[in-house]
Fold these 3 entries.
Entry 1:
Amino acid sequence: MSKHILGLTSKEDGVVSKALKTIHDKGTQASIRPLLEAFATRKDDALREEMLGMLSSMKLSAAEDIFLEALTDPKLAHVAGDILQCLWSCGFMCDGRLALVVEVACQGDFKQAMEGATLLEQVETVQDEKDLLEAQVIVGEAMGDDSKKDIAPFLEGMKAHLAMLQDTLM
């Protein structure tokens, strides 16, 4: 593992700051997952915000798959809302993975549901009918779950948007 990636988890803020600068200037797709993991374990501070800013402005197309894969990692479940935010901020459409996005949105708190709904709303067309149908089932099940009342407005929005996407298939 390269020195700048190892520096992300240093206890010394100066080392972390230098690692972030190196990744900003010379980072590759190999830097994305370690940066995401460092963000997930870092206490709330300015360096953590800088990490989120970098993750939210990724221009590498490989970042989409890395973020989507991270949504399935239980060790990163506590930052799933942030990962959804990064996907949205980067402009990724999550084609073929809408069911995953919807599932994560439905599993989380208010922020996670909001970020998932916001990400879903930017999708204008779908190619994968099976993925779309699975996403609709997930939202439908969540709407029937009394423990999801706090996120009901987001569930309703996702349901409506998924129905609109269904209409684009025909």
Entry 2:
Amino acid sequence: MSLRTKFFEWISRGDPGDPNELVEVARVRIGRGPLTVAELCSAGFHATGDETFNIVTNTSSDYRVLVPRVEADRAMEHLKGIL
């Protein structure tokens, strides 16, 4: 294996990972988060959400919208229409 091949292998993204791993598709204000998750669930996605904690202001201010990796691209396209 050449040095160039090893270098490209080293900087590549590698294995795409577990298709059921939850990935963040959006970060919205905390009041909008549960509504966004409900909209994705009603559209057929397996969405969940999680509050984020801001250590500077010591409050929960944002909401992370999570979907399985296999549904992430479709979920982001769907979110463009509702956010």
Entry 3:
Amino acid sequence: MKSKNKFILSVLSITFLVTISGCTAFLAGAGTIGIGMDTTRLERFTDYDTAWNATIDTLNDLSAAIEIEDKENNQIQATMADYKIKILVQKSGQESVFVDVTVRKKGLPNLSFADKIIEQINTKIRQKDSSFLFNVEKEPDCTD
């Protein structure tokens, strides 16, 4: 019985620490995870261009000023108010892409804003992928 209580206490303690640290991506799952103290990662089964375009669209929607947009080196850097945003978009195999988002405000990590950006990028990728899946051209009518 004591070991069961210790286990429950350990799980609750870890959950509490993760929650107060701002790492909601760890709890949310769905292809996101907090890596490091200031970076959140999204992994999606999509092509590189879709992930890149969704990332640029998200920054534009947030009215962030894109300072570096270097597709060759997979890097995007932007600023918004006191936030410095660094994003790395890279292939992770043939059909998978990683999007790493790092956000700092006045030099300090801001995982909650990085999580928000990741969620918006994920939504845009999902929208772009689903529009591709359902954008089937109608077959020509061959009856005369």
